[in-house]
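Posting this for the archive.
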Amino acid sequence: MSDSSGDRIELRGLRVLGFCGVPEEERARAQPLEIDLDLGLDLIDAARDDDLDRTVDYGALCDAVSACVTDRPAALLEHLAQRVAEVALGLDVRVSWVTVAVRKLRPPVPHDLVTAGVRVTRRP
């Protein structure tokens, strides 16, 4: 394995309908969420060999993240981001870290606010 510590997979703008909010009525209805993921892993073998088995299948990752978000409600975006990070880290042992950003696209506040979100970084 070479030193490719700066390698990462970046996924931007995964849109899902999820159930997230402190008030029960907010958790009762699906709302649009947007998720970004950065995964740190050595990509040299995948790059050299042009082989999907040597990297993370981001289609499978998107499927797993979408299922995680729609699976059960969360009160806090922080909790939802933690769950997504755990899914991403559990998908492939080669992932050394993950950064997850989760944003509400229509935050229910009485202000002109485009998005509300959190960003967390986790390691296995």
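Residues 9 and 39 are 5 Å apart (CA to CA). The radius of gyration is 16 Å.
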